[in-house]
From TrEMBL:
Pfam families given in the database record: UPF0114
PANTHER family, sorted: UPF0114 PROTEIN YQHA
Subcellular compartments: Cell membrane
Keywords for the protein's UniProt record, in alphabetical order: Cell membrane, Membrane, Transmembrane, Transmembrane helix
UniProt source species: Symbiopectobacterium purcellii
Family statement drawn from the similarity comment of this UniProt entry: Belongs to the UPF0114 family.
Keyword Transmembrane: yes
Annotated TM spans: 12-34, 54-75, 109-126, 138-156
Topology term for the membrane: Multi-pass membrane protein
Protein name: UPF0114 protein K6K13_01970
Xref: InterPro entries: UPF0114, UPF0114_bac
């Protein structure tokens, strides 16, 4: 009975595979939104003020960072929790693939969230004249919370890795 339960639990990791595949659909949706924004802005690019163009570009950078985060979580999560990716020797392989454990993935996700939050905060600051002061304050507080959380996660990860040696 114990062996059956252990095998069932181990095999249940495959329930994550469709979830990781679903992230690729999220990536597709993000790509469509990205190009929708590009095609929306192109006809009016010469009429746009520089600050407005920068805001649009920051939005595109934001989407790009989220896309990279999706790929990282999708591939690394699959490899860490489901199965090793079998990529042919003659195909290009991402340098970080197979080297990121769940702790490293967690830290990369936290760093990506901080980067995404930074871009969003920059967008808010560039349009600060249209944002109430109390909302600006909350954006900064939330961003600093992300920064502090990422720092603490990295510190704790380093401390626990150091203790294991």
């Amino acid at each position: 009975m114990e062996r059956f339960i252990e095998n069932l639990m181990y095999t249940s990791r495959w329930l994550l595979a469709p979830i990781y595949l679903g992230l690729s659909l999220g990536l597709l949706a993000l790509m469509l939104k990205f190009f929708q924004e590009v095609f929306h802005i192109l006809p009016s690019v010469f009429a746009l003020a520089e600050a407005d163009l920068i805001l649009v570009l920051l939005s595109l950078i934001d989407m790009t960072l989220v896309g990279g985060l999706l790929v990282m979580v999708m591939l690394s999560g699959y490899e860490n929790f489901v199965s090793t990716l079998n990529i042919d020797e003659n195909r290009e392989k991402l340098s970080w693939l197979g080297k990121m454990d769940s702790g490293s993935l967690k830290n990369k996700v936290a760093a990506s969230i901080v980067a995404i939050s930074s871009i969003h905060l920059l967008r808010v600051f560039m349009d600060a004249r249209n944002t109430p002061d109390n909302k600006l304050m909350w954006y900064v507080i939330i961003h600093l919370t992300f920064v502090l959380s990422a720092f603490l996660m990295g510190y704790l990860d380093k401390a626990t890795r150091h203790e294991k040696k």
